[in-house]
């Protein structure tokens, strides 16, 4: 898999994605990011979308890239 690909979010939901909102998303509906673990599917990655646009675009990233991203944020 290339490291990042763009899909439409419903495509992942149709594949059984369970979306989880970031604990850093605010309650006012701003800055809302959701992720779905698709490593056990044919997509073999982590999907990321804007929760305000659940039918819009979503990124599919390699799991190792997603882990590095989260660790970079956590420890910076």
Topology of helices and strands:
Blueprint: E1 4-8, H1 9-14, E2 20-21, E3 33-37, E4 46-50, E5 57-61, H2 63-74
Describe this entry's structure for a reader.
This protein has 2 helices and 5 strands. Strand 4 (46-50) and strand 5 form a beta hairpin. A 5-stranded antiparallel beta sheet has the order 1-5-4-3-2. The protein is an alpha+beta fold. The chain is globular and about 30 Å long.
Radius of gyration: 12 Å
Distance between the termini: 28 Å
Main beta sheet: 5 strands, antiparallel
Number of helices: 2
Count of β-strands? 5
Kindly estimate the percentage of residues that lie in beta strands according to DSSP: 25-35%
Task: Work out the helicity level.
Answer: 10-25%
Oligomer: single chain
> Which series of helices and strands comes N to C?
EHEEEEH
Query: Judging from the principal axes of the Cα atoms, what is the shape?
Result: globular
Low-confidence stretches: none
**Which structural class matches the secondary elements?**
alpha+beta
On the 0 to 100 scale, the average pLDDT is: 86
Read across the widest sheet, the strand sequence of neighbours is: 1-5-4-3-2
